[in-house]
Amino acid sequence: MTRPDASGPIVGVVGHGVTGRRLSTYLLRLGTNVAVYDPAMSGTPRGAVAVSRANDLAVTDVVALCHPQPHARLAAEYLAAGISVVSMSADVVDVRALVDLDHTARRHNASLIVGAAMSPGLSGLLADHLWRQLHVAEEIHVATHGTAGPACAVQHHDALGETAIGWHDGVWIERPGGSGRELNWFPEPIGAKDCYRAAMPDPLLLQRSFPGCSRISARVSGTRRDRLTARFPMLTPPHAAGDLGAVRVEVRGAGADGARVTVIAGASGPTADLAAAVTTVCVEACLAGSVEPGMHAVGGPSLDAPALLRRTSELGVQLQEFTGVARSSAW
Amino acid sequence: MKVAGSIPASPTVKALRRAFVALSLAGAIAGLLRARGKGGIPPQEGGWSELKLPPA
């Protein structure tokens, strides 16, 4: 671990749950000063400074929002103070509100990176990587499995019971969460999982990043019980320490010879690690001054997505690609 | 037409008879489709491997 430089930049972390702790660990390991705000936190995290009010982080250089949604209100306050913000929010309404803060960010010469987690986040970086491999890319389909901390698990639960959005031939479509079953193979050790449409903000952000794309969908894995109980409060308490997760991105299009081509990439590991790695590289980019003022979606053209993906890999995220012919089975 | 000695079937028996006929027909059609299907071989190649990122 590199010793933090007292005169170096300070990163504020709001929310010190499973993912927030992982983010702090990444940042401290890189020698960054970390200040944490979490009213539910007991004790001071090792190597970091705990503050008692969210306003106390107004002296930091970048603030990473890792607490349960909504993020938009707090993000607006930090942006108004000229502080760049990186948000992990995965709630559709919240992400819409964050996207609308573009003007606020520009006016105060600050950057706002939205969807800096596993999905959205790593899904956008993988989509960008795959998009570049095709001569003409037309469709992006994202599937995720697993949750980070308890707040993430609650959001995953709710997402299956809410209305899912998708981009279909140039128009937004809405479908019931829990519909559209699709069997997806995730990188090992996750393997095959049934996935369903859910209220995920990935299509919203991917459509901004890839405006030429004709179809975008996002699904999450779920069991029969998940679908049955999605519209009720969670019956069982979520996994306190998070669990293994995976993200899988499939891009369809055509090769240079006109042949139909499907390329697939993904990653698996502890969900909090995958999400926090993406947040870390976004924070690094903000600190390096390589992010222009305004709102940015991870994977979008305004960020150097290949560099961010490479840096994510350097932090230990094992990126994988599906080799072989991706086609529907004949049996 | 009523025939001497015949006993009209009760609604329950009628429903059961119809269900039996429907199930028999469904089974026969499914069997026919299964017999005509070619089956196939599941994918024998492909899988996940490390993603090689292009150099910076």
Quick overview of this protein structure:
With 331 residues, chain A is of the alpha/beta class. Chain A has helices at residues 18-29, 72-80, 92-99, 102-107, 122-131, 150-161, 202-209, 224-229, 271-287, 305-314, and strands spanning 10-14, 33-37, 49-51, 62-65, 84-87, 111-114, 136-145, 163-168, 171-176, 182-186, 191-197, 215-221, 244-254, 260-270, 294-297, 319-323. In chain A, strands 7, 8, 9, 10, 11, 12, 13, 14 and 16 form a nine-stranded mixed beta sheet that branches.
Mean pLDDT of chain A: 91
**Major beta sheet summary of chain A:** 9 strands, mixed
The helix fraction of chain A, in percent, is 25-40%
Percent of residues of chain B in beta strands? 5-15%
User: Uncertain segments of chain A of ≥5 residues (pLDDT<50)?
Assistant: none
Could you tell me the radius of gyration of chain B in angstroms? 28 Å
Q: Helix count of chain A, per DSSP?
A: 10
The secondary-structure element order of chain B is HE
Number of strands of chain B: 1
For the largest interface, the chains and their residue counts are:
A-B, 24 and 16 residues
Walkthrough of the structure:
The complex is a heterodimer of chains A (331) and B (56). Chain A is α/β, with parallel strands linked by helices. Helices cover 30% and strands 29% of the residues of chain A. Chain A has helices spanning 18-29, 72-80, 92-99, 102-107, 122-131, 150-161, 202-209, 224-229, 271-287, 305-314, and strands at 10-14, 33-37, 49-51, 62-65, 84-87, 111-114, 136-145, 163-168, 171-176, 182-186, 191-197, 215-221, 244-254, 260-270, 294-297, 319-323. In chain A, the strands form two sheets. In chain A, strands 7, 8, 9, 10, 11, 12, 13, 14 and 16 form a nine-stranded mixed β-sheet that branches. The mean pLDDT of chain A is 91. With 56 residues, chain B is mainly alpha-helical. Chain B has one helix spanning 11-36, and one strand at residues 47-50. At the A-B interface, α10 and β16 of A face β1 of B. β16 (319-323) of chain A pairs antiparallel with β1 (47-50) of chain B.
